[in-house]
Amino acid sequence: MKYLTLLLCLFLTACANTQLHLVTKGYSKNEVAALKSSLSEQLVKQKIDVVLSDIPLPAMFPDASLALNPTYNQPDVIALLDNWLLANGHKTSREFRFSEGNHYYSKAHLGLYLRKPGSKEQVDLPPYLRTQYCDVADGTLALNKGGQAVLEYELLGDGSDKIDTLKGQWFFADNHLTVDFKEISQTFKLAKEEKQTHLGPRPADVYKPTKQLSKKHILNCEFLIIYIN
Q: For residue range 77-97, what is the model confidence (pLDDT) as tens digits?
């Protein structure tokens, strides 16, 4: 299921140095940090600062894309970036000027969009998943773009109305979602199903636990999102 993403407009103000906004998809947190460090070393002489951006990578963009203001005219910088891309397993960049992909940059800013090779069909996870038909607890799992997972849940049957919270990291690969909290972790397999709603059957993404934890826990339950439209 593909998500309809709100069009993003970047109105970026000028600063002392030019900024390169690095947008990635499919890379781990450590890989992104390594890419940023390598780019910073390459661009230090050009006085270009590399900053990370967590905006979605437009589906129309190829694996290596460079978004520029139409007045940007620094062919030496573009050539340097293309050489860096080739050295890091990408083809040279496809340039997008002004409003292509609805990303706008001022003259002092660039946008470099990198999708990890082989991850083009990677699933875009929803920001929230909820439990359904869980006899242990009622909960919501938030999947933040920075890789942070936040699980909030209320145990059923204890009469306390207490909300418990777990914070950790999430990772998605090969149709499996892993959430890793300090105290406990679980891996879910994504399944495409239909669920009954007040509007009739609707498609849903259901994340099913791949193991039963040794104790009674909400992470033994399924999490899902139902698409009403």
A: 999 999 999 998 888 788 887
